[in-house]
Amino acid sequence: MNNQSLTDLKDLTQDRLVDFVESLGQPAFRGRQILAWIYRPDIVDFSQMTDLAKDFRATLAKHARMSRFTDPVIETSRDGAVKFGFRLEDSLVIESVLIPEEDRNTLCVSSQVGCAMGCSFCLTGTMGFSRNLRPAEIVNQVCGVRERMAAEKQGRLTNLVFMGMGEPLANLDNLLAALSILTEQRGLDFSSRRITVSTCGLVPQMLELGKKTDVNLAVSLHAADDRTRSRLMPVNKKYPLAVLIAA
């Protein structure tokens, strides 16, 4: 069986993971047990999940997988920021940027390969849009950088900002799933107060995000009048400043 045809458990929120194990004839609590294992950096194989029965571990290996990013291309800038280039399973490449500061370590996370928003000042926008990232591909950026920091004894990752490649709210469903995993205590256990989602101003999705999460929201304005903003950011033609501010 092609490995990519297996269910990637890192795509699943806790509720969906419970549904998955129940589809395999297991009780719901097994899903919560698995979630507590898969985001430990030393766990790469189901055989390591020692509180699961051996036959169930074998069943998991037949039906599921745990994707991870390995061997990123790493570049360090003069100001100390560290860029990670992660190659996806379809050979596309995304970037995450670690910004170390005295009192925090912030990771800038990507949500899409490319971007369709067409903002004139954004380099990613010149790439065009390829596809949305799956929840696992969003979460694995955090896992990959966290593991690298631990190996290099560089402290811990404290803050996440969705300001990397892509418009996060144009990939809302996968973003919400990733945020659920990132903030779940059995998952990566980030405080929602330490997560910021940046948007160019997709108003309906902004409202939906506010209903379903309590992460921080940052809106990129770049201009104080509609004429200038529409020239810089085409999204302003659909959601002008008055609509954006009212939201």
From TrEMBL:
SUPFAM superfamilies: Radical SAM enzymes. Its cofactor is [4Fe-4S] cluster. One of its GO terms (biological process) is tRNA methylation. Residues 101-247 form the Radical SAM core domain. Its EC number is 2.1.1.192. Gene3D superfamilies: 1.10.150.530, Aldolase class I (3.20.20.70). This is 23S rRNA (Adenine(2503)-C(2))-methyltransferase @ tRNA (Adenine(37)-C(2))-methyltransferase.
